[in-house]
Amino acid sequence: MRRRQLLAFTAVLAAVAAPSVGRAQAWPSRPVKIVVPTGPGSSLDLIARTLGDKLAARWGQPVVVENKPGAGGLIGVDAAAKATDGHTLAIGFNGPIAFGPFLYRQMPYDPAKDLVPIVMTTSQPNVLAVSVDKVPAKTVAEFVAWAKALDGGLNYSSLGNGSSAHLTMELFLAEAGLRGTHVPFNGSPPAALAVAQGEVHATFMVAPALMPHVRNDKVRLLAVSSVQRPDSLKDLPALATSGFPNVESLAWNGLFAPAGTPEAVVARINADVNAVLQDPAVRQALDNQGLTVVGGSAADFKRQIDADVRRWGPLITRLGVKLD
Fold first, then answer.
1. How far, in Å, CA of 192 to CA of 214, rounded?
2. Which end of the chain is more exposed for a tag (fewer CB within 10 A), N or C?
3. Which of 241, 260, 276 is the last residue of a domain?
4. What is the pLDDT of residues 41-79, one digit of tens each?
5. What is the pTM of this model?
6. What domain range is 108 assigned to?
7. Do 203 and 138 share a domain, yes or no?
8. Which CATH number belongs to the domain containing residue 57 in this structure?
9. What is the count of structural domains for the chain?
């Protein structure tokens, strides 16, 4: 009798579990969309398209990259957070995920409640870059001395309000005792172009959008914002060794799903992205752009986000940076 009861109980458990397993195995059942909250040519766009091509082959479904820039990344991330089709993801970064709640009086979504971290794709330091035509400095010390003597203070671009690039520059200005006017753009390509054309003096941002202008001798790189850096930036000094040990920041990128996405689907995406990130061609393509491959579990990614919230939240409050 006990044996029959045990078999019956086991059958019930299997029946309950089968639908969730079936859903995980069936996903994706349609094209997958990755929303990029910055413009074409940005580092996030490059990551999404590099991964998307490989993931499409693994999933047997097209991966569509949709750029939705604006509001420091909030527009694109909000669109993904509110998606209900079960096949929409976002590639997010520090700004609209970890910094936003401290910067904006009101956000259209709650990063902690409305989004599920899946996997960190890459991390990279921000690079301090200056306009060759406007700034004669070739070192961080020379740049600080030049900026202090500049009438009216310097102006700088960023890829958007509340981005890691924006906050890193604000921290640097505070530590160096400089004044600066922030000129935000929708993404790194136009922000980098503004430096190359001399519309602004300087910027902090990740390297990919800057490199064409560096090769054309329009932009000069002075330093990176982290001791940790990819091989492609190893010849640049860190700000920590250039007299500014408190200016340390890493910009990270990663995939998110709307809250309520089944754990089995999150686990599958995580496993497939980690596999793609081990592809030598993918790793080389990302390293060539100054991006360091990360990967890891969803729990690892959440810990990094939580650490950023604890570190940058009080700092944003101290710097007094507020956005509408």
1. 10
2. N
3. 241
4. 888 999 999 999 999 999 999 999 999 998 889 999 999
5. 0.78
6. 30-123+251-319
7. yes
8. 3.40.190.150
9. 2
